[in-house]
């Protein structure tokens, strides 16, 4: 069933910047429902990417896809193209938030909830480091944060480092990364969970030192 879903996903053509800008104008100004649907469809791979980082269990995966799609629709409705933020950045918070809320209601999926929450924190650090709209003073602070995050990752073992780099920096699919490591997908998620737990502990000290919230 997942393979069938991936086959359908592979048919989606990514939008160019010009195409996306025109679609947003048609949707927000001209109220085109076709433009709205095209935007939602083109960002469905983002829903898949976030869900695949949380679980490899098929039933739960499709539940998260459904919840994430609702989050994507909500993001599409509320997004303002004029605020200077990429829609992908804006939408992923709504998508992941929907998935996390669902996992909180499903008490039997606490491992996946922990992965989702800790993964969200790590991505928050990485987005902060990647922010290129900062002044000189903030740039110095971000450089320090980047050094500390890299140092924290370097303290993980080799398998944990590969999982973190593949998922959160190289945007590699879990199934592909697991195949490269010659391990099962279930074991892959166990490594991910442990690595995120260790990083959370190390980065919480950094957060306390900088007196900022995740």
TrEMBL record:
Q: What is the lineage of its organism?
A: Bacteria, Bacillati, Bacillota, Hydrogenispora
Annotated Pfam families: Sigma70_r2
Q: Which UniProt keywords apply?
A: DNA-binding, Sigma factor, Transcription, Transcription regulation
Q: Name one GO molecular function term.
A: sigma factor activity
Q: Which InterPro entries match?
A: RNA_pol_sigma-70_dom, RNA_pol_sigma70, RNA_pol_sigma70_r2, RNA_pol_sigma_r2, RNA_pol_sigma_r3/r4-like, Sigma-70_Factor
The name on file for this protein is RNA polymerase sporulation-specific sigma factor
Q: Which family does it belong to?
A: Belongs to the sigma-70 factor family.
Q: Which GO terms describe its biological process?
A: DNA-templated transcription initiation
Segments forming domain RNA polymerase sigma-70 region = 39-107
């Amino acid at each position: 069933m997942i393979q069938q879903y991936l086959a359908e996903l592979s048919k989606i053509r990514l939008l160019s910047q010009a195409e996306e800008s025109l679609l947003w104008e048609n949707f927000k100004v001209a109220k085109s429902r076709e433009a709205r649907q095209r935007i939602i469809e083109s960002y469905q791979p983002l829903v898949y990417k976030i869900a695949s980082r949380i679980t490899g269990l098929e039933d739960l995966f499709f539940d998260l896809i459904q919840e994430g799609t609702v989050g994507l629709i909500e993001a599409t409705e509320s997004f303002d193209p004029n605020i200077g933020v990429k829609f992908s950045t804006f939408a992923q918070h709504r998508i992941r938030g929907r998935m996390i809320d669902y996992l909180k209601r499903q008490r039997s999926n606490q491992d996946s909830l922990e992965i989702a929450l800790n993964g969200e924190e790590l991505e928050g650090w990485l987005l902060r480091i990647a922010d290129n709209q900062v002044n000189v003073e903030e740039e110095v602070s971000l450089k320090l944060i980047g050094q500390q995050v890299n140092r924290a990752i370097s303290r993980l073992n080799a398998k944990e480092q590969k999982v973190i780099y593949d998922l959160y920096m190289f945007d590699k699919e879990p199934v592909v990364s697991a195949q490269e490591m010659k391990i099962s997908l279930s074991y892959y998620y166990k490594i991910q969970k442990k690595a995120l737990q260790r990083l959370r502990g190390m980065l919480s000290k950094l957060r306390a030192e900088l007196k900022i919230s995740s």
